[in-house]
Specification:
- The protein is of the alpha/beta class and 405 residues long.
- The chain folds into four domains: 159 residues, MoaB/Mog-like domain (Molybdenum Cofactor Biosythetic Enzyme, Chain A, 3-Layer(aba) Sandwich); 56 residues, Molybdopterin biosynthesis moea protein, domain 2, CATH 3.90.105.10; 83 residues, Molybdopterin biosynthesis moea protein, domain 3 (Molybdopterin biosynthesis moeA protein, domain 3), CATH 2.170.190.11; 73 residues, MoeA, C-terminal, domain IV (Beta-clip, Beta Barrel), CATH 2.40.340.10.
- Helices cover 18% and strands 31% of the residues.
- Strand 8 and strand 9 form a beta hairpin.
- The protein is elongated, with a radius of gyration of 30 Å.
- Bound molecules: adenosine monophosphate and magnesium ion (MG).
- Adenosine monophosphate binds next to helix 3.
Length: 405
Amino acid sequence: MPLSFYQAREKILAAVPLSAIENVPLLDAAGRAVAEDIVAGRPLPLFDNSAMDGYAVRAEDCEVGVTLPVIGYLPAGGQGAGRVEPGTVVKLMTGAPVPPGADAIIPFEETEELPKQIKILKPVQKGAHIRRRGEDISPGDRVIAEGTVLRPGEISLLASFCLTAVPVRRRVRVAILSTGDELQEIDEPCIEGGIVNSNSWALAAAVQEIGAVPLMLGIARDNLESLREKLRDGLQADVLITSAGVSAGDRDLVREVLEELGVEQQFWKINIKPGRPTAFGLQGSTPVFSLPGNPVSALLTFEEFVRPALLKMMGHRTLLKPLFKARLQEPFSKKPGKLQMLRVKVMLNEAGEMSVASAGDQNTGILRTLIDAQGVALLAAERDHFTAGELVDVHLLGGATALGY
Ligand code: AMP
Ligand code: MG
């Protein structure tokens, strides 16, 4: 009995190893997952500073209508303007340190500027327009949890802590091997009956999209010698992905040679459509994914099974894209028994709810439907009929969607 979609994914995620930690320059860490908790080593802001262009004052001095002498000036980054003694003010700009003695900032527009003094036009609250030391972040705060993807906001924080290098997990090197006698490379002249090897490119793009490094090994032919040579090469990488040669109709040469090379098969076949003949094995701790050859099946099984595994290896905390409930616009029927990964268009209906509709012919041979889809609906294995308006589980396709990073 093949594993269920969820069992297969659990088995894979439990088996894949974490890649090593390396320190990389701050900008190289952008888009990658931080490998350790980041704890604030200093407060943010570092000192009390002004949130406005205006005057540092003592709130109690600022009765409406009084005039006060301006005894100093502080630009941002300025210092040494002295104390704000009772009955005086210091002119200062946004970001300038609040001078000792002052307990509020009054913005320019709430004063009238006179020669060497100002007139107060509005009352001032104690503490007004002061950004307090540590009000944003206190030392010791765990500000970024291990496994978080570093977006520009996180990079901003790390930069303000003066971190020039950041611990991340090494990018996983992923060998990609296409198999099949019928395959030809994209730069070869068309041969009769030849199928262009598109899978290597598609899988390499998918690997690259999540920050892993594709190593394209080309094509192995459907014979033991060719497969031995290429698969042996592929097993030097951190992960090996093959496509084709694992369906029931094949001579199973890929799995046979993998076994000969010491790859222990963890499972073969998942109760899904498309992608049923997918196999997963381990050589030591090196994961080996044998995906079906059909381009749609290869990409959908990558999306559901390989992508989360690579993210896990690279230390991501969020491995799966969030599933949301969306309304099916039209009824859909399938045979019970396999979970169907339905390629869907995703849109908002009049009520502002997510809704989905089949993106086209769901036949595995139709790549167009994958291109027209923005999401995948996961239709439960045991069900056969889905009614219009019913809620189904959907996730988006694409690597860097805000929701599913
Ligand atoms: P298989 O899994 O070997 O039965 O292949 C299923 C289908 O996918 C066949 O039509 C193959 O020609 C096609 N196919 C296999 N490998 C590739 C590839 N690398 N690029 C494009 N199509 C492929
Ligand atoms: Mg084949």
